[in-house]
Amino acid sequence: MQTVLRPMGARERRLLTVCVGVSLALHALLVWIALPAGPKGGSRGAPAALAERFASAVNAATDLDPAVRSRLEAAVAGVRRSSWRRLAMAQTLQEVARGAGVPVSDCKLVRALDPERAREGRWDIRVWVRWDEDVAADPFLIVAFLVGEGTLKSDFGSHRLWIQVEAPEGTGRVALETMDCRLFRAGKLSASDLLHRARWYDG
Predict the structure, then answer these.
(1) Do the Cβ atoms of 121 and 133 come closer than 8 Å?
(2) CB–CB of 147/93 below 8 Å?
(3) Spatial distance between the Cα atoms of 71 and 81, rounded to a whole number of angstroms
(4) How many helices (H) and strands (E) does the chain have?
(5) Concatenated DSSP letters for 2-42?
(6) What is the signed CA dihedral for 99, 105, 107, 111, rounded to 10 degrees?
(7) Is the pTM of this model over 0.90?
(8) In this structure, what are the phi and psi dihedrals at residue 42, rounded to the nearest 5 degrees?
(9) CA angle 131-150-144, nearest 5°?
(10) What is the pLDDT of residues 4-26, one digit of tens each?
(11) d(Cα 177, Cα 57) in Å, to the nearest integer?
């Protein structure tokens, strides 16, 4: 049996055009929904610029100026050991960091941000720091130094430090292990090695 194909009429061509248009629009919508969370269609230049500035600061990092380190050691020498215990650490860290000239807007002790570490009973310390333009990596190093001091003198143990960065380019987060901060405070880890172990997250 032979099938005879006839040309499509005007109505059928219009229907086919509509179907194709709807299919393409639906595909575009699904692709848009699948994009990573964040402002769709906006510029991604700001997060990239901030991440690039942090990477440059890490690569250029040198150890804390001896005068700065001396001031920090003098500051922590006057802090009672009990002030570094887990429940008091956030307030102590905020006060000492501000006294050292780090623009800390807030500091909190919270359950670990990721579920697996939270189930293990881990804690995170979150520090909000303003990072102005043309400022090197010193704010990160000073906060790490102070957290290292706290872990040496407290029951805080092996947990995680999150530095929430507030900068002209936008916001970001730096994650450091508190054990690395302890090694840095004890002089067993250089500033460069400490920051190269850090992890950067946008937003």
Answers:
(1) no
(2) yes
(3) 18
(4) 8, 5
(5) --------HHHHHHHHHHHHHHHHHHHHHHHHHSPSS-TTS
(6) -160
(7) no
(8) -85, 175
(9) 30
(10) 445 556 665 565 554 545 454 44
(11) 19
Rg of the Cα trace of the chain? 26
126-129-133 Cα angle (round to 5): 150
Question: How remote is the C-alpha of 64 from its chain's centroid?
Answer: 22
Cβ 197 vs Cβ 180: under 8 Å: yes
**How many beta carbons lie within 10 A of that of residue 195, not counting itself?**
23
- How far from chain centre, in Å, is Cα 70? 28
What is d(CA 68, CA 116) in angstroms, rounded to the nearest whole number? 37
| pLDDT tens for each residue of the chain, 203 residues long | 444 445 556 665 565 554 545 454 444 443 333 333 333 333 345 679 999 999 999 999 999 999 999 999 999 999 999 999 888 999 999 999 999 999 999 999 999 988 888 898 888 999 999 999 989 999 999 999 999 999 898 877 668 999 999 999 999 999 999 999 999 999 999 999 999 999 999 98
